[in-house]
Design goal:
The chain is an alpha/beta fold. The protein is built from nine helices and eleven strands. The chain is about 35% helix and about 25% strand. The chain has a six-stranded mixed sheet with strand order 5-6-7-3-8-9, sandwiched between helices. Strands 2-1-4 form a three-stranded antiparallel sheet, with helices on one face. It has a two-stranded antiparallel sheet with strand order 10-11. Bound molecules: adenosine-5'-triphosphate and magnesium ion.
Length: about 250
Amino acid sequence: MESTYNNPKYIEIENLCVRYGGKHKKEVLKGLNLTVRKGQVYGFLGPNGAGKTTAIKTMVGLIPEYTGRVLILDRPPQDLSAKQKIGFMPEIANYYWYLTAREALHMYARIFGINKKQATAKTEELLDLVGLKDSANVLMKTFSKGMMQKLSFAQALINDPELLILDEPMGGLDPVSRIKMRDVIKRLHKEGKTIFFSSHELSEIEMICDEIAIIKDGALLKSGKLHELLSQKGESIALERYFLNIIGDKVK
Ligand SMILES: Nc1ncnc2c1ncn2[C@@H]1O[C@H](COP(=O)(O)OP(=O)(O)OP(=O)(O)O)[C@@H](O)[C@H]1O
Ligand SMILES: [Mg+2]
């Protein structure tokens, strides 16, 4: 894999602190540091409640109150010019339930300023890519969790983003769909896109990421090249074992 070490920083987070519900409430992110460079496939790991979704929401401008430094494509998270180049897949999708998948994707394309003809072409391309062609005219309110995940992934790709930020993209996908999403992510990586995603699927992370960060209780525990982190004393250990060692949890 080509070195990305000297590439520009696409996500730059320094000493990020976030509290929910005002300054007297619990601090959820406690000085988080993170750097993601152009061209990386970056895995964001951590136990439930560690603060991954909070960090991701801050990156995409959904949590305006924070302290510390957050730059996405060299811009603050609220900056529209950066948002144009980002694709975001939320952990819990909240869409227009009374639209069909086809209508929703078309609408998102139009919101990004894509003309009608291209919006139609892009919609069809993405429905095909994520495997939703057969359900394209069904109302979203009848979609299963996995179908929503696919639509959400397609929505994140609508503007041909430079940087993809995905919050648990593989949750709820069946094995075949997961393999397909893995292949799409690999292909986007080959095309030079930068992909940052949170996941609990350690085997997926192992297969597609070149760099990872592990957080716990709102702070970074480890980050670095996956193969360097996993090679210890000349031996390569599995990510699952490494993860358990780092977060310090014992599993019987
Ligand atoms: N809207 C909110 N108001 C108050 N507390 C919140 C809110 N959202 C999250 N939290 C708290 O912030 C902490 C971090 O939550 P977050 O959703 O960022 O974790 P996560 O790492 O994404 O977890 P998971 O792996 O379960 O998705 C948790 O303690 C959670 O209870
Ligand atoms: Mg989360």
